[in-house]
TrEMBL record:
InterPro entries: SET_dom, SET_dom_sf. It holds the Pfam family SET. Residues 57-199 form the SET domain. It comes from the Eukaryota. This is SET domain-containing protein. Gene3D superfamilies: SET domain. It comes from Perkinsus olseni. PROSITE patterns: SET.
Amino acid sequence: MEASQGDILCDIADVLADMSKAELLETWKVMKKIRRRVGEAPEERHAQILRHLRDGPVVKLGVSPIHGVGVFAVTAISSGVDPFRAAVSEGSKGSNDEYEIVSDKELLEVSPEVRELCFSFFAPFTTTEDDYSPEVGEDGKIYPVNATGLNTLDVSWYLNHSECHPNVELVEPKGPGEFNTYRTKRDIQAGEELTIDYHQLGEAYYNRVMEAPVHDAERRASRDDQ
């Protein structure tokens, strides 16, 4: 006899009730992925892609007058929008931009080159939203490392720093295990570089990046930026 929907829901509820907080968090992530897989039809996704290509926002990497590589607007971008938003909606993404927590102790097990790359891109967690001091536990600082690895970082990771006139700001994550997003602070013209104030990423990250040698390829900002 096939189980009814009510019986299935009761069984699921019983299993969830016995889970720890960590197990519930992992289950929640899996449920989000399942929901995405049964989301929008391919035709709807196709329409969203075309709308994205037509209306933007579209950005690209380019040589920056601030330092090294920077992010530039290909299309004009209005104030108050996420310049890196996906071409398709949350329901039709293949995977979300999520992170795994990695500690200083765990990073000692990887090569120095990979470790430095993590330090360059992933700012350590801070104690509170109002305090930019890094959170330090038994295993040192902890970092939100991209859950899909270092080879799938999107262009937002290349935002350069502006001390005085950033045109993009940080937006806090919507849920557990997710990265922050971004929002433009004003209208941005096509061809203009997008910048953010690295102070928003925490003082530990800001100081590390700003104190790196000028020839260091991982330094992506300048104190003199206006």
